[in-house]
Design brief:
By secondary structure, the protein is an alpha+beta fold. The protein is built from two helices and six strands, in the order ββββββαα. Strands 1, 2, 3, 4, 5 and 6 form a six-stranded antiparallel β-sheet that branches.
């Protein structure tokens, strides 16, 4: 969650699925605990979807479709022995456009939108893997 939260940094979590866009939260995604910022959520609240994105990422994660996946909101981050509120984020233009596209997909059809978002993430990983492999072979 760089630059807001460094790996291994201690955080204080309020266990609740109650979130608003801009909050940083811990949630379960593909059997992993992830800490990212809530980029958008459906108007359905507890029965909808939540779309998270790391501050350094342009792409959103696959959507969270159940409030049971949400561990809670990050209330504070430990810095020099003191707990302080986590910093805010000002997403770049690419992140804003990609988030808006993901939201549009989910609003049109949650299942199809979710599948397309996950496919995009896998495709990006595959492309970067090929590029990394190509660079290593030079």
């Amino acid at each position: 969650m760089l630059p807001a939260i460094a790996p291994g940094q201690t955080v204080r979590i309020r266990c609740s699925p109650e979130l608003v866009p801009g909050d940083i939260a811990a949630f379960l995604l593909d059997d992993n605990v992830v800490v990212h910022r809530l980029a958008a959520q459906s108007a359905g609240g507890q029965r909808g979807w939540w779309l998270f994105r790391g501050d350094a990422n342009s792409l959103c994660d696959g959507p969270v479709l159940s409030p049971d996946q949400i561990v809670g909101r990050i209330e504070a981050v430990e810095i020099a022995g003191q707990f302080v509120p986590p910093p805010g984020d000002i997403p770049g233009a690419r992140a804003r456009v990609l988030t808006a596209a993901a939201v549009s997909l989910l609003r049109a059809d949650v299942r199809l939108g979710s599948a397309l978002i996950r496919f995009t993430i896998q495709l990006r990983r595959a492309i970067f893997g090929v590029i990394a492999q190509s660079a290593a072979n030079r």
